[in-house]
Amino acid sequence: MMGPMNDAPPSPPGDRVRPGGGRLVREPDDSMVSGVCSGLADWLGLDVRLVRGLAVILVLITPWTLLAYLVASFAIPERQPHEHRVRAERVTGLGDAHPALLIGGVIVAVLLFDDAWFLHPFPAAVALVAIGVWLLTRDRDRPPSNRNSNAEGDRSTTMTSGPAPADTLAGTGTGRSVEPPPPGSGWSPGPTEWPTEQVPWVPEPPLEPYEPRSVLGRAGFAVLLLGGGLVWLLDSVDLIDVSPRTAMAVGLLGIGVVLIVATWRGRAAGLIPIGFLLAGGLVLDEAVDVPLDAGLGDRTYTVDTVGELRQDYDLLAGEMVLDLTAAPLPRTGAAEVEGDLGLGDMEVRVPEDARVTVDATVQAGDIHWPGQGDTTEDGVDIDRSFTLAGEPGGRRLHLDLSVGVGTLEVVRG
Amino acid sequence: MVDHPFDPVSFVLGLLAVASGLIVLAGGNLIEQARILLPLGLIAFGIAVLVRLGGDRTG
Fold first, then answer.
1. pLDDT higher at A121 or A385
2. Chain B: which residues have CB within 8 Å of chain A?
3. How far is CA A12 from CA A146, A178, A208, B46, in A?
4. Cβ contact, residue pair B24, A249, below 8 Å
5. ipTM of the complex
6. What is the DSSP letter of A140?
7. Which of A27, A109, A270, B31 has CB atoms 3.0–4.6 Å from A39's, for a disulfide?
8. Which residues contact A117 (CB under 8 A, 6 or more apart)?
9. Strands A355-368 and A376-388, how do they pair?
């Protein structure tokens, strides 16, 4: 008599799916902490040691990885004992990789190499075009039978464990069969574990008609990448001049057209979150007074000479430090400096002896400035003007500062 | 691509995306137009769901 299968029923040979084709689950029987890395490795077709190694490196680089792991531990469901463990086909080359891998790689690259040459417009635009071409051509080379086996593979993950009905094994009644695997295939229930008793036959529900996966969404995504990359490329070599706002609007328009087509033909639900991202970017562009190409990350501007003093400092998101403590301010009149930050923290250091007038706005967040009494304000739609007294007849500075969401702090140097 | 029954979500979000893109390209402001776009989107979504339900009953 076959006993209950252990908690990790091995995957029959037919349960191999292409990378990203199965369901992402945490793997309880091969876990170090909660099985996130193991589940990711199964899903992406990678060696679990590679995924764990990358996770450790990322933890050393940024503690946010721990938070991401924690979120994943709650967000990704654990494989249930009755479900087969489904592993994606092993990725042997870049062409087999799931797009999530490439996107993850780009994010890691941005984290690691903020100013790397390959993140400059030209190579990044070429990369976008290349990914678009690759997405458009990858499915052409994939045999259609693979997709059918994926559909079957996905279904097989819902098979329950326990004694397999003999007629199911023989392929009777349902039109589906599970053949005993060939010797040495890595999967075998053991010579004595095939059922020896007659098990009541329970008819399986009829298979749903197979619907081929729509190419509309992926083709739309690929065209978006291609178009965006080409426009970026031509813009970076000064052949055309297209603002990010215009490019995002055209992308949103294209997504809308594809979605309207998908109302009756094909599926393109994957484009919906991209559309929301583009619309969010356009709204952000309107909400904060910062150009979208103002840059991301941490910026420190230290002004020591007249030549370094600019009138305008912009950053889309990140931490901006504007150090004016040693700035050569004019003796006559007030130097005018404007600082705009979309999202993040801005710290402006001003000279000890200068008289500084500040016009500050924060859409949501808080403002701090030096002085006695209440020198902090938080909330939304903050519009505040204040003056920091200086030496009589001393240098003067006027600051026009704006933060969309975040903290604005003015400190004496 | 396979034909399928009318999908109200794709239809309404597609219309909203097209409208938003055109507004921006015409030099408009999305935040200002949101007070018109969002209610219109809700109305369109309601109508689209009713159309879908009508199609299911007759189909």
1. A385
2. 1-4, 6-11, 13-22, 24-25, 29-31
3. 16, 9, 22, 46
4. yes
5. 0.91
6. G
7. A27
8. A123
9. antiparallel
Contacts of B11 in chain A (CB under 8 A): 259-260, 263
Question: Residues B4-49: pLDDT tens digits?
Answer: 888 888 999 999 999 999 999 999 888 888 888 889 988 988 888 8
Are the beta carbons of A259 and B6 separated by less than 8 Å? Answer: no
N-to-C CA span, chain B: 21
Chain B residues touching residue A249 (CB < 8 angstroms): 20-21, 24-25
Window from A129-138, A310-319, A390-399 with minimum mean pLDDT:
A129-138
CA gap A5, A379 in Å, rounded:
58
pTM as predicted: 0.53
Residue pLDDT, tens place only, A153-185: 344 333 333 444 444 344 334 334 444 455 544
Residues 6+ apart with CB under 8 A from A358: A369, A384, A385, A386, A387, A388, A398, A399, A401, A410
Token look-up 């949101």 returns B34
Name which of A242, A243, A260 to mutate to probe chain B: the one with the most chain B Cβ atoms within 10 A of its Cβ: A260
Contacts of B1 in chain A (CB under 8 A): 214-216, 265-266
Collect all residues with Cβ–Cβ distance below 8 Å to A220 and sequence separation of at least 6.
A254, A255, A258, A268, A271
Contact B4 A246 (CB under 8 A): no
